[in-house]
What we know:
The protein is 38% helix and 19% strand.
Amino acid sequence: MKIAFVASEVFPYAKAGGLADVAGALPKELAKLGHDVKVFMPKYYQVNEYEYDLHYDRYIGEMPVRIGGHIQNTHVFHGYMPDSDVDIYFIHNPHYFHRPQIYTNDWDEDERFILFQKGVIEALQRMHWAPDIIHCNDWQTALIPLFIKDNYSWDKLFENTATLLTIHNIGYQGRFSPETLGRAEINGRYFYPGGPVEMDGGVNFLKAGIFFADMLNTVSPTYAKELLTPEFGAGLENYLRQRQNDFVGILNGVDYSIWNPETDKHIPYHYSIKNTSNKIKNKEFLLKQFNIKFNPDIPLIGIVSRLVAQKGFDIIADAINDLMSLKAQWIILGSGEQRYEDLFNTMAKYFPDKVGVYIGYNNELAHLIEAGADIFLMPSHYEPCGLNQIYSLKYGTVPVVRKTGGLADTVQDWNEYNAYGLDIGNGFSFYEYSGSALLHSVLRAINDFHNKPVWKKIQYNGMIKDYSWHHSAQEYNALYQRTYRK
Ligand code: ADP
Ligand code: GLC
């Protein structure tokens, strides 16, 4: 099949979170299954054409894209995804995309991604390439199904094109004022209370995607169920319910060419399930970076995360005094909301001998924490899939998570499963969203950390499991067939 894969972030070119990891890996895996895949993303300021050998696409040439009646001259760059022959196209418009961050709170954030989406469609037209499937990801791409079915329905090129929308996180919907309707040139007949693009009086990109995409999915089976409830659906649950028959959950995979302790190019000491003895050297190395004394008998707890409420930092804050009084060390990497950055900076200041904090984005350190920590903490309020806990499993770094979304699908609680006589537990999890439940699980983990045979078994259970993309890509393959048949 011919598949256009459209995303607002793709690793290694630009990344804010897990979407980039997915968009950097799944297309290559689909190509291995024999699909003809082309990836599309914006050419942000951060995307360096020399580093990635990208070239101005002369065949496409100058491409005027209309935003609210005004013409924006746009171009396309082309390259190949690393270690593959998968084409990647970058929609180039410096006015919109040359900004310090890939996502902004600027007044024209809507226009930036309207331009991107129209740019993708216009590029397909100029390439005369009719995809069987346009695979959209999150709100930044969720108007494409509507555009294809309405604004561009005159173009026979898309006569047989079907659309799939993957929801990576319903917390981000692309909600704007009613003026956005005109900027996107969306037909006013879709904008009425309760209508396909309207929500609370404004325009909602994700809702439009839920209405117009031929098929929908999200990134884990549990989150797919959760999204149908008011607690998790963020106001869109009823619309998802209406499309329940066209909505499935497919767990994300992992790119083990990047996240694997046997070959990871960012860690100094490699190790494997057969011989984990080097793991502790990474711990020593990691602690040294933060001037924290290495002691093999003190567990090291790692956090790598966007510092936002979704990730459970409120319950960490609630339990912070108790957590800091534990005999444990902490390395925290993240950036996001000021209040959480302040919380961790304060901890590092008061407990310099046990807490190391790095505020910012640092890919190498993210790898080093996965390798060096004993325990990985991820107490998310909600988690569509979550990749870090899956990376942790592979690195023998035992995850402590809240049982929600993809965390529930990947982490089996050691005690709970043991109680059923199954020694398949690979981590620790808790259900109640509270500081005390979190603390209780961290305590259980620390306790078992000191019981070496048990700890080895928990690590083993995590490391043995294969979460590579191969399996999930087969599921997407089946979903594409289903989408196309519709
Ligand atoms: P989300 O997409 O919600 O942020 P995921 O667990 O799916 O959560 O993916 C997060 C990805 O972003 C992982 O690859 C993780 O290593 C990376 N990441 C998050 N914060 C940072 C950071 N501060 N520095 C480097 N990598 C980070
Ligand atoms: C989102 C979710 C995360 C998921 C990622 C990739 O950012 O928050 O849980 O793993 O998308 O699908």
